[in-house]
Design brief:
By secondary structure, this protein is an alpha/beta fold. 16% of the residues lie in helices and 23% in strands. Strands 2-8-4-9-10-3 form a six-stranded parallel β-sheet. It has a four-stranded antiparallel β-sheet with strand order 1-12-13-16, with no helix packed on it. A three-stranded antiparallel β-sheet has the order 15-14-17. Strand 14 and strand 15 form a beta hairpin. It is globular and about 60 Å long.
Amino acid sequence: MRSKKLFTVFLALAGMFLFAVPSVYAFNDVKATAVYADLQDPNTDAVIIDVRTVDEHNGFTPPWSSNPGVIDTNGAYNGTPKWRVNGKTHLPISIPWWIDQNTSFSNTAPDNPTEVRNIINGLLDRGVINFNTKLYFLCRTAIRSHDMAGWVEGQTFTGGGGGGGVFANIYDIDDPSDGTFNNTGGMYEWDASVLPTSTQPKYMGTSWSGFTYTPPQVFATYDGGTTFKVSILEPTSSSHFNEPAVTRVSLQIFDNGNKGSEVAFSLTDTVAGTLWTDYTFNASSVTAPFDIPNNTTWTWRALAANGDAGRGLANNALGVTDISPTDARDASVLRNGVVVDVRTWEEHQGCEDTGWTPFTYNCSSTAANARSPIWTD
């Protein structure tokens, strides 16, 4: 276990797809269902690394497609995996294999190997991963993830201190049971419509309202004393999609993970446009002091947001507990909770949202999303 306690608002580690299969490789292909089970085990140190482009990671078609920057409506690709451990939701880490171009399949190195190396070294330096962490690589169909697995396997990394090192546990998300490499792994395999018996969840951003952006990639460590260090990872954007700038980084404390409040924040992306942006929050600071309770009933979370429409809810969605509609109804019936409807007034009155920017409505719709919850207590 790491000496520093790691708090990740969302571990975005997702991606490996390969096209040309080497005759011999040491990394292992693994089923998506097995990966999902492993990720949920609190005793397993494992992450997904998403090697799709920034566009795809955020729910858009690839930058080389006929309609770059448009929402990808193919259910097998749209969205990104998510999983829960100890009540917290985690997302893959995005490390793009390609950025703007559909690089030749014979190319077995990423478009920007320097950036890929700096991301991995940065993850090691911040304690997000170590050389024994299970790295599950994922892309759309297991082409790029396969290449990334092979590339990472052949590299020595210097992050984490103590000289160089190599990863011991590298995997490609591509079901090995058929014994062939047939471009049906990755998100295609993860998707529930492809695997009807699967219960593997996906994070869809806010695509229902025209925005599919996933939250910023936030990692936070606590030194065990008074200092929290928060890091934001912002990979290079493609020419079709620019990651919105982070304008607020928030450190929050929660009582038993239920009720919480913000204790410190920053309103500035201090190094806008850089790969890593680091913030330090210190309880003994003159400008922003806060108390650290001397017990174990409190949890800490770091969140990042910006002012773009739809981003705030998407960012904070990973800092709350996901529950089913049935659980929400039951809590309301017992008066242990309330349902807060954040839709527009027209939607609340029974109109279906049929357009975005500007909103348009169909107020005679009988669609399931054009109504409001009701319960009796």
